[in-house]
Specification:
The protein is mostly helical and 361 residues long. It is built from 15 helices and 4 strands.
């Protein structure tokens, strides 16, 4: 299941195969280069990226799930045929956007230009324009920033940033980074006010989910900074420091998650204790009632009172249910066998000696 922005929906077979396909390409580019380093120069060998010394089984990736219940879904999807793709999603190239924007006044919002291009485009039925939802939100977020070219706005709209609503913490970060590009300066990561780096100095607050959300927002902002540093290297020139801070944030998030998991497990165990005590108390009460019934049956069988029983008699009455239960006749065989058992456990041979022993001071 995945959340599509509105509700939980099943992951499609094509999406499962796309995600699982990454397991077959789990090696990095450097590892692939090393593996193919001893490939011969023959024409047949040049067409392969795999070393002759590496078997296909060594490049096989494994796919699994966090929960056992989801494994059957993965197995079924991997053996199923994905639905055919009826049309491919495309997005206008930058040159088309720049040419189309030239037909509008300079003050025209870039989001409006995107919408007009989307509505007026004529496409072959085998293609469709990708949804502009995220592009429009980012375009509106950086619209107040002046001196940005159309090319700059196109790059920002393609950035790995998500804007959920008007209060999203990513909006001020986007605007501040866009201002750095517009002014061609101020891209030092320590000067970006929207990056809440002070979170790294704060103590881990396990009781507040807001703390974890702030860490995640900081991580997203750092990913955005690093992505832009490859497009505007002259402006965002502290890439190495950004990578280091990103590592610190990831360690902080991992610490919070591990401690929260441990705390939740402890709280779950604590919450189960009252229930256990209740079960123990109920079991103890039922045991007491059962012992009372056993003792009552023993007294009824032998015409005895509770005051006349010794501690050994109590133990026998409670610990030998098979001998005592069902003995309802005072002079029956089972009654005599029960008394004989009492006598034998007390070191006396007969019922008469047992009774005589109890009567003696």
């Amino acid at each position: 299941m995945k959340f599509n922005g509105r509700s939980e929906v099943p992951v499609e077979t094509s999406q499962i195969k796309q995600i699982a396909g990454r397991a077959g390409r789990y090696r990095t580019a450097a590892q692939a280069t090393e593996m193919s380093g001893n490939v011969s120069s023959s024409p047949d060998a040049k067409t392969s990226n795999m070393s002759p010394d590496v078997s296909p089984a060594q490049t096989l990736g494994l796919v699994t799930t966090l929960d056992r219940s989801g494994l059957s879904v993965i197995q079924k999807a991997m053996t199923s045929q994905a639905d055919p793709i009826m049309s491919a999603g495309i997005f206008p190239p930058d040159s088309v956007l720049i040419s189309f924007a030239a037909y509008f006044p300079p003050s025209t919002p870039f989001s409006y230009i995107l919408i007009r291009l989307h509505n007026t485009s004529l496409l072959n039925p085998r293609f469709h324009l990708c949804i502009l939802k995220e592009h429009l939100k980012i375009a509106d977020a950086i619209e107040p920033v002046k001196n940005l070219t159309i090319s700059d706005r196109i790059i920002f709209c393609a950035a790995p940033a998500t804007v959920k609503d008007k209060d999203d913490p990513m909006i001020p970060v986007l605007r501040e980074l866009a201002e750095c590009v517009a002014n061609n300066s101020g891209g030092n990561i320590l000067d970006i006010r929207g990056l809440k780096l002070e979170l790294l100095e704060m103590e881990v607050n396990l009781g507040s989910r807001m703390f974890l959300e702030k860490l995640e927002a900081l991580h997203k902002a750092l990913v955005l900074y690093l992505w832009l540093s490859y497009r505007f290297a002259g402006v965002f020139n502290t890439q190495a420091m950004a990578f280091y801070i990103k590592t610190l944030v990831e360690e902080k998030i991992q610490t919070v998650l591990s401690r929260r998991t441990f705390t939740k497990r402890i709280e779950k165990q604590k919450s189960a204790i009252p229930t256990d005590f209740a079960n123990i108390k109920r079991h103890h009460s039922e045991s007491e009632n059962q012992d009372s019934r056993k003792l009552g049956a023993y007294l009824s069988d032998h015409g005895r009172s509770e005051k006349g029983l010794s501690s050994a008699d109590f133990q026998i009455a409670l610990n030998v249910p098979g001998q005592i239960q069902g003995s309802r006749s005072k002079h029956g065989t089972q009654s005599r066998s029960s008394l004989d058992l009492v006598a034998s456990l007390r070191g006396q041979k007969t019922v008469q000696e047992a009774v005589k022993g109890e009567a003696s001071p």
